[in-house]
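Hey all, sorry for the wall of text incoming. These are the three entities for the joint prediction.
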Amino acid sequence: MALEVREKQPSDVETEQLATGCEAIAEAIRLADVDVMAAYPIRPYDGVMQAAAKLIANGKMDVEYIVADGEHSQFEIVKHACAVGSRVFVGSSGVGWFYAMEAIAVTAGLRLPVVAICGNRALDDPGAFGCEHNDALAVRDLGWLLCWAETAQESLDFALTAWRVGEDKRVSLPVAIGLDGAFLTHSQQIVKIPTQSAVNSFLPKFDLGDRLLHPDNPITIAPQVDQDWLMEIRMQNDQAMRKALEVIAEAHADFKRLFGRGGENPYLDEYMTDDAEVVFIGQGTLSLPMKVAIRKLRKEGHKVGLVRLKWFRPFATADVVKSLSRFKAVGVIDRDYSFGSPYYGGVLYNEIRSAMYSVEKRPTIVGFIAALGGREIEQPMAREMFDKLTAAASGGLKSGDITHWIGVRN
Amino acid sequence: MAVETHGTGTLPQIKGVKDVPYDELFVSGHRTCQGCESALVMRHMVKASGPRTIVLGSTGCMYVANTTYYTTPWVVPWMHTQLGASGSAALGTAAGLKVLMRKGKIKDEKINVIAFCGDGGGADMGIGAISATLTHKDYNSLILLYDNESYANTDIQLSSQTPYGAVTTFSPSGSAKRLMHTRWKKNMPGMMAAGHPESRYIAAGCAAYAVDLMNKIRKALELGGPTFVHTLDPCPKGWDYHPQYSQELGHLAVETGIWPLYEVIDGVCNLTGPTRQIAEGRKKRKPVYEYLKRQGRFAHFADEDVEHFQATVDKMWTEWLIPGVIPFTVAQKDQTLLRIEKRPLHEETKPA
Amino acid sequence: MSDTVKTDPTGITIEIVYRGIFQKTLAQRICRSVVLAARKRGYTGTAFGRYGDSPERNGVPAKYFAVVAVNDLELEASMAKYEPSVVDIAVAVDDTLVKGVESWAWYGRQPIWKPVHEGGAVLVTSEKTPDEVLAQTDTAERPYLMGIVPGLASFAGLWVFKDDHTDYRVLGALAKIVPQWVRIEDVKTLIQEQTKDGSAVASAQDGYERTQLRQVKVGEGTSGHEVLQFDKPGWTTMRPGVIVDARKPGERNPYYKKYGARTLRPVVNFDTCIKCTMCWLDCPDECFEVTPEGHYEVVYEACIGCGICAQVCPVKDCIVMVDELKFEDNDDKWQMWKTDHDAYNRWFEQKSGVSADPKKVALASSRAENAAPGANPTTAGGED
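and here's what came out:
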């Protein structure tokens, strides 16, 4: 990949910032030379838009910045900018994300690599700003890639990876990055800002090839289809999503080589799992208080660990199964809900349960619904989950067939 | 037959029918109804714009009827967008092209961006996005609203552009209710003109006046910035008449004064075609009954319905600040204050 | 050979092939009546339009189905279907439909008898003889019974239904050829209940008596129609991103020609043409080519017969709309006028019934002359 030289760059050294997840992503937008972004205010994601506006106003980056009249328009604007060859960025939270849902669905249908952050926020009604995952999870069937960041650093890293993987011709699908509301969108952490040259080595130019909408390439994109054609088109999306697993792994290896970060496995992080008997699995920042709890439990002699799932879509079934098959019990922590689902479990619970179905000696799987509406995971809650998990592992608690709501006042 | 090619630069005004370019950029083989004036608008739209054009088509008849996978009638690049997204599609496409050209990622050249919407997608669902785009003076686009006065593609339901009393599948005429739809047509082009002074070009046209329409489209694209053209398209399916009369009904809509033809260029309002002749007193407005009686969607009208229709059209011509464009009236005491000399239009503006 | 149609003893499937929008109400009424009449003797049934046709477009061929079954269990085979792949009877309520059915892009052009099983029937409403209709029908690949139900194509309208009793006559005709499923007594009782109109009942009897039947053998019909069939690609070769190639300049859409939508076609008098451009300019389907001399010739492979050109032409009888069944091919005609002027004018006169001599025509005093209701079929509401 050729080194791109731009005029008037800041000196090309890695720097450090104290930045929120949103601000870190604004830096990624700058480094990726995004062409068009569309903004609309809703908390807690829009810190990224505010940070980006500052960068533009101060001449740090050249991006077409459009304030839309609503989230539906926001996502439509970037979708169309993408179709004419622009690298784009957009985002929303909670019900704003849902207001854009038509645009979100069709973007995947069109195979356009829009990159969006979802600043995870509880859905109305009632209005609430706190962290829940249901907003981002709503894309899970549509053909969007979806991952969750743990730190501000990982937010930036995932953003760069998102353009790299989404725009790859073998994939060409939109990518959503979940950033836990407040905990990640609004909390400042030490973030290493990579050099432009390293980013240029990692991220090629966006090239739609013969899918570019331009008078030199006469095509019609998305004519109306009927029952004779749609299933074949869906098949193509399915194949692209399968390919994405491979492309993510390639990008992960490349990222590690260039930036020295990314963990062992592209799709999940394991913490103290080597000799664990039981593990927890979850997504996003809930990993941090859980790791604190695990260290305490280890001091007490308990063999417990954590698996943090990074990529939700595509779901790395083989890797997840390989990892979780080693344990006697798995506690799935859902920062979301799925009312009326099998076993009343959260979304991740039923996905894990389904993934593990074919394993001969299955671990006991217990579902926990925790920390909804922005509530923290406090240590006593972690302890409660551990007690329930170990009880299930030793057969004391009726198998996995009960979902536990943690920390709810009666 | 020789196919002329367009220059990529200016789009000069077409002097007359003999000057209409031969290039067909929207060709035969689309599943529109016999006599579909909206299809004719599509044909004229890209004939006027030429081949250096990208068209964004929102959901509706001009999407579903025209493009059937795995084929297309479009010669110019074309992309689907959502029902309420024509404004956003225009904005995103124009902004994307602009920045890519500025950054040197694509060749810097004039590319026409046209996003079309029906009356449902434009005047109802998508009006917010269109309004937003018309305020973005830095981006060049034309939003073309083709108005067949219903949500036609879903088999004819009423929209805010459906005329008073018209039958649709959401407003059938029955024994208990003769008229289920009693809302008057929302003044869309006037609203766009009044509300978006930074848009350099807003117009109302009709394919029955093809050269006038094509020139309006060219003017919009030449002036640049965000622009808007609204065409009234007789629709044999929705209006219930034999397709051969589509042109005739377009003429009647204008000659009765129901659909005024005009443009607002850099804030200056200009009436065109028979509308101008009516305002000048050179032509009498035909009675609306001549137009209504030709369409099955008004077949249930009683005398009082026709009278109400006529009275409302009369009011538009005799009381509005600008007939057919701006619906304000001005109190006598304020006419001097606001420097408005309110004279009645010629006596002849009443129907013949 | 029998004058009735043998069907499976458990049920019958009838399709009405019709002109979209114009005959939508007619097709629905026929199908519903078939089911409701059968109900009178304890059978059950379903009636449904082909979903792929919707939204319907004026003139574009569409299908409505009536299925009658002896009980609910047998009916299941016909439920949750887009369209039955095999029918017992196809009823074309416009005789120009026998020239072929093309309903959407990639559909091809299908013979009217395509879904009809061997020994089934094709009923056609027409004022023509069975032989005249057969001369425009694709060569039979299986024997079938053709029935001509007397009457013109009924353009019944969308909001206002012009009742010319076509549906009653069709029901009578069905009773004639499948009495085991459509009993004439049940049909008449149903019509009486619905309309309380003795003349409507009489029309059913009229259809029952006057429908002319003709057995069609393999090989009978015309092979002169274009074969329009396409193989569809699969997901491995379809362009990713829901993309299709644009049309090239000067091309017309080869995958959807749409000429099967017309019941009339325009014939042009090049002698009286004043080259005003209006026909070319106002054609929504871009069906005119400009000749080197500045005439405008109709591309019959594209024309859908809307009639706008005839209406906007300022010269009386310069463009005349003519019954589509009078023509065997889609050849463009200007070349003929250029090379053999007199032969072309004779052709024009023979088809249109109007003189080609410029001395015998004059400029129309107003467009309204061409708009006389008697000149062309109209939907309800065309005039008072």
